[in-house]
C-alpha cells in the first residue's frame, strides 16, 4: 500500500489506498525519516520516528513535530501503468512550505501596537504565527522572546549539544521578513494588563494587542545547596549553555544532577567526550515514573555499559570550589565526587510568574488553565506549550500538562485557528522521543498514573515494546528498536479506539514473531 519509487533525480512515496493512487515526498521534513516505514491509516501517513502526520491527498502536515508539508506529485494511470509527474526541485528538497499571506496593514500601526502578540518564540509561538499566515491572516504579528536567537530546535540542546544556533534554527531570518512575522529578541514581558490589552516589558516599553498568545514555556529549577551560583554549574537553557558545557567537559569530570530526560541525554552525549560522567538522582531507577522500573533498569544498564556512574537515592548537599571554580560535588550520602562541570536537570517550573496579578487563571503549580481551544478565562487571550494545563481527549478530557515538542506545535496551531474563530478543538495523541547512545525510545499516549506495564520483547537486547495500562485500558506505549509500533498505536488511539490489556497480553506476541500488527487496526484476528 506504500512504495518508495525512484524517479531518476529523486524518490517519491507512491500510495494506494481504497483503490486510489497518491504520490508525495518520501521523507518526513522534520528529520528525514523514510515514510514508507511509517503507518498508513485513513488518508494520512504517520512518521515512524517522531509521529508527524501528513495528508496523502494534499501532502499537508496534520500533526507534528515539524513545520513543512510534503510535496504532492501528479499521478496518472494509463494501461495499468502508474505515471508520476514531479518537479526536480520538489524531489530534491522533499518539503513544501504552505502558501502564506503577508501583512498588508503595517502602516496602520504604531511601533507600540499590534493585532496579535505572541509571548515566547518556541514551537508553540512559531506554529501559531505560521498558521495565522497560512490561513490568510494579513494583519500585524509580533513575537517576543527573552532569547537572543530566532526560534530554534530546542530538543537538540541536550541531544546534539555542540550545535550552533544557525544550525538548529527552525526558519532562516529571511523567512520572517518574507512573511512579516516580527520577532523581538531579548525582550522580556513583566506584566500583562488584560483590561487595557497591554503587555509591559522589562525596559518599560508597552505594546497594545488585540489577541494574545502566552507561550513562555518552562524555567529550569536550580539547586538549593551551598555553592549553587558557582562558575561551571549549568542549567541547559540556550545553545550557548550547551556549547560551553561540551567545551568545558571534554576530558574532564562531569557531574549531572537529575536523571530527567535532559540529564540522561546530556550524560549520553558527554560519555565519550568527558573523562568521567557521574549522575546523581533521588529515585532508585531513572525514568521510573515515566517508563516504569523495568524499562528504567534496562536504560540504566545501557548507560553503565557506556561508563556512566550512577549515585542513586541521594541528593547534592554542597558544591565546593577551588580558586573560584567548581572542584567537588558533595552528596548527602557522604560521597564526594570530583567535578569540573556540573549540569543541573532536576525539573522545571512554568514561566508564568509575570501573570500572577493579571486575572488570567493560573493553577496552584503555576500552569495556565485553558480549554480545548487553548483559550484562557480571558477573552482574546490564549496559551500554549509547556506552561499550560489543557483537556486531553485520550484521558476523558482530564486537564493535563504535556511539556513536549510535538504537543507545543499542536497547541500553537489550535490557538491560531481559534484566534480566527474557527472553533477548532484540540485532538491529538501525545508523542515524544528521547535519543541516547544512538538509540531512541519512542513514546505515545499519556501514561500518568499507570498501574501496570506489559512488556514484550527483550529488555537486555534493548528491543522491546512496553504497554502502559490503567485498569484494563492501554494509556501509553513505548518502544526501542521496534518501529513503527508506537506510530501504529498512536493511530489507533487517534481514531478513538481502545486497546485493552487482555488484547496486548494475548496478541502482541504475534507482532514480534511475524511483524503482523493488523490486530491493532481491527483487521486481523
TrEMBL record:
Domain (Rieske): residue spans on this chain: 1-84
Subcellular location: Mitochondrion
Keyword list, A-Z: 2Fe-2S, Apoptosis, Electron transport, FAD, Flavoprotein, Iron, Iron-sulfur, Metal-binding, Mitochondrion, Oxidoreductase, Transport
Keyword Oxidoreductase belongs to the record: yes
Family (UniProt): Belongs to the FAD-dependent oxidoreductase family.
GO cellular component: mitochondrion
Protein name: Apoptosis-inducing factor 3
Amino acid at each position: 500500500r506504500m512504495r518508495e519509487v525512484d524517479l531518476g533525480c529523486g524518490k517519491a512515496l507512491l500510495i494506494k489506498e481504497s483503490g486510489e493512487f497518491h504520490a508525495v515526498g518520501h521523507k518526513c521534513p522534520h528529520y528525514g525519516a523514510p515514510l514508507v516505514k511509517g503507518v498508513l491509516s485513513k488518508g494520512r501517513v504517520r512518521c515512524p520516528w517522531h509521529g508527524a502526520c501528513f495528508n496523502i491527498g494534499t501532502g499537508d502536515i496534520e500533526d507534528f513535530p515539524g513545520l513543512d508539508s510534503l510535496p504532492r506529485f501528479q499521478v496518472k494511470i494509463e494501461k495499468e501503468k502508474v505515471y508520476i509527474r514531479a518537479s526536480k526541485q520538489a524531489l530534491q528538497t522533499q518539503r513544501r512550505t504552505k502558501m502564506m499571506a503577508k501583512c498588508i496593514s503595517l502602516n496602520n500601526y504604531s511601533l507600540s501596537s499590534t493585532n496579535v502578540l505572541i509571548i515566547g518564540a518556541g514551537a508553540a509561538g512559531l506554529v501559531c504565527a505560521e498558521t495565522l499566515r497560512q490561513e490568510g491572516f494579513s494583519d500585524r504579528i509580533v513575537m517576543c522572546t527573552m532569547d537572543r536567537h530566532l526560534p530554534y530546535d530546542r530538543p537538540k540542546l541536550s541531544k546534539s549539544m555542540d550545535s550552533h544556533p544557525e544550525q538548529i534554527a527552525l526558519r532562516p531570518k529571511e523567512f520572517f521578513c518574507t512573511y512579516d512575522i516580527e520577532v523581538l529578541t531579548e525582550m522580556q514581558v513583566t506584566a500583562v494588563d488584560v483590561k487595557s490589552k497591554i503587555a509591559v516589558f522589562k525596559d518599560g516599553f508597552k505594546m497594545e494587542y488585540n489577541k494574545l498568545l502566552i507561550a513562555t514555556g518552562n524555567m529550569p529549577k536550580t539547586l538549593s545547596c551551598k555553592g549553587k551560583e558557582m562558575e561551571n554549574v549549568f542549567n541547559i537553557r540556550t545553545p550557548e549553555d550547551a556549547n560551553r558545557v561540551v567545551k568545558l567537559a571534554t576530558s574532564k569530570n562531569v557531574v549531572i544532577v537529575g536523571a530527567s530526560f535532559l540529564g540522561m541525554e546530556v550524560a549520553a552525549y558527554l560519555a565519550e567526550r568527558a573523562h568521567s560522567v557521574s549522575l546523581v538522582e533521588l529515585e532508585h531507577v531513572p525514568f521510573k515514573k515515566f517508563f516504569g522500573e523495568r524499562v528504567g533498569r534496562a536504560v540504566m544498564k545501557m548507560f553503565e555499559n557506556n561508563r556512566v556512574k550512577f549515585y542513586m537515592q541521594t541528593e547534592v548537599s554542597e558544591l565546593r570550589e577551588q580558586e573560584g571554580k567548581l572542584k567537588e560535588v558533595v552528596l548527602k550520602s557522604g560521597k564526594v565526587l570530583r567535578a569540573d562541570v556540573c549540569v543541573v536537570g532536576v525539573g522545571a517550573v512554568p514561566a508564568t510568574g509575570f501573570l500572577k496579578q493579571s486575572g488570567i487563571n493560573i493553577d496552584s503549580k503555576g500552569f495556565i488553565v485553558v480549554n480545548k481551544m487553548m483559550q484562557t478565562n480571558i477573552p482574546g487571550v490564549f496559551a500554549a506549550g509547556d506552561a499550560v494545563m489543557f483537556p486531553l481527549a485520550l484521558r476523558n478530557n482530564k486537564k493535563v500538562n504535556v511539556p513536549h515538542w510535538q504537543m507545543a506545535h499542536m497547541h500553537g496551531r489550535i490557538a491560531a485557528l481559534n484566534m480566527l474563530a474557527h472553533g477548532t478543538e484540540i485532538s491529538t495523541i501525545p508523542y515524544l522521543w528521547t535519543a541516547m547512545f544512538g538509540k531512541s525510545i519512542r513514546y505515545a499516549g499519556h501514561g500518568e498514573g499507570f498501574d501496570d506495564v506489559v512488556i514484550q520483547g527483550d529488555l537486555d537486547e534493548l528491543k522491546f515494546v512496553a504497554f502502559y495500562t490503567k485498569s484494563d485500558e492501554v494509556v501509553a506505549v513505548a518502544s526501542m528498536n521496534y518501529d513503527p509500533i508506537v506510530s501504529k498505536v498512536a493511530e489507533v488511539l487517534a481514531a478513538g479506539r481502545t486497546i485493552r490489556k487482555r488484547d496486548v497480553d494475548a496478541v502482541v506476541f504475534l507482532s514480534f514473531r511475524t511483524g503482523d500488527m493488523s490486530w491493532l487496526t481491527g483487521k486481523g484476528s
